[in-house]
Design brief:
Layout lengths: L13 H13 L11 H14 L2 H5 L1 H20 L4 E5 L6 H4 L7 E6 L1 H10 L9 E5 L5 H14 L3 E5 L8 H12 L4 E9 L1 H15 L23 E6 L1 H7 L5 H6 L15 E7 L2
Parallel strand pairs: 1-2, 1-4, 2-3, 4-5
Antiparallel strand pairs: 5-7, 6-7
Helix pairs in contact: 1-2, 1-4, 4-10, 7-8
Length: 284
């Protein structure tokens, strides 16, 4: 890395940050999950990025709990007969390698060529638990993604869409268009989304956007409606899990955050309250 080059060059570099927290979790004796590939994927650059964002380091529990809850929901959906998982903006996710998955499951990763090629190189000698296909695609290209969704929909009977740490970087109009596109293939029946409230979005903008400025991206999406934002778009929430309350139950919070976790859970409209949820959506 040259002296003049920014740490976070583009949005794909945030995948290095996520890998850092998976690697650190893996080293804990009481780890909620283990990712033996995360340290290699994060590399020195990932550690540099993490150390440059104190806010993210102080709240690393949120990254860990997001991964943990997604793992749980994916495992449950596999038990309920999902035959394809489409991971949009897959980044450096390693679930096909580290989770116990049905051998007949089709796992599709979609992301920009640079990040997927980097991962392919690092994991070249590893074997996934199920058939794994990588699609190099810019998901902001609406025409290309619609064509991909149609092709994948023909190959599945019951598909689960995964968007982890992705739509927060989209505008509301972009999220609306993506949701409508995903609702078209009949086989796309379930979708996991992580959401933040307008209150938490303001906090993230203040503490994360300055570090993202050179990447050309910023955190943008935190709907006032909460999960209800997606109902008119063809998706109804069937399960909403709180990372904060889950972290409290697992004793992963500081004293101050533990007090915040005592507030009643609300999965409806969100305002200034710093709320987040991992949401499983289904078609009506």
């Amino acid at each position: 890395m040259s002296q003049a080059e920014p740490l976070i060059r583009n949005i794909s570099d945030t995948a290095l940050l996520a890998a850092v927290y998976r690697a650190r979790e893996t080293e804990r004796r009481d780890a909620l999950f283990r990712d033996p590939f995360a340290c290699r994927l994060a590399g020195k650059r990932g550690e540099q990025i993490a150390d440059s964002i104190p806010f993210s380091n102080r709240n690393s529990w949120a990254w860990v709990l997001r991964t943990y809850i997604y793992d749980q929901i994916i495992a449950e959906q596999c038990q309920q007969g999902v035959d394809m998982i489409v991971n949009l903006a897959a980044g450096l996710d390693t679930r096909p390698y580290r989770l116990s998955l049905p051998p007949a499951l089709q796992w599709i990763e979609v992301d920009l060529p640079g990040i997927l090629s980097y991962k392919e190189e690092i994991l070249a000698s590893e074997r996934p638990a199920c058939p794994l296909e990588r699609v190099h695609l810019d998901l902001s290209d609406a025409t290309a993604r619609r064509e991909l969704f149609v092709r994948l929909g023909r190959r599945a009977a019951k598909a689960l869409i995964v968007t982890e740490g992705f739509i927060i970087y989209f505008s509301a109009d972009q999220v609306r268009a993506l949701a409508e596109d995903l609702a078209v293939p009949p086989a796309f029946q379930r979708w996991i989304v992580d959401l933040v409230s307008p209150g938490l979005l303001r906090l993230l903008r203040k503490n994360m956007n300055p570090s993202l400025s050179d990447s050309g991206s910023s955190v943008q999406f935190g709907p006032e409606e909460g999960p209800g934002f997606f109902v008119p778009l063809g998706w109804r929430p069937v399960d909403v899990r709180s990372p904060l309350k889950t972290a409290a139950r697992l004793k992963r919070l500081s004293f101050g955050m533990s007090l915040l976790s005592l507030l009643p859970q609300s999965n409806s409209r969100q305002g200034s309250r710093p709320w987040s949820g991992i949401c499983l959506f289904a078609k009506p």
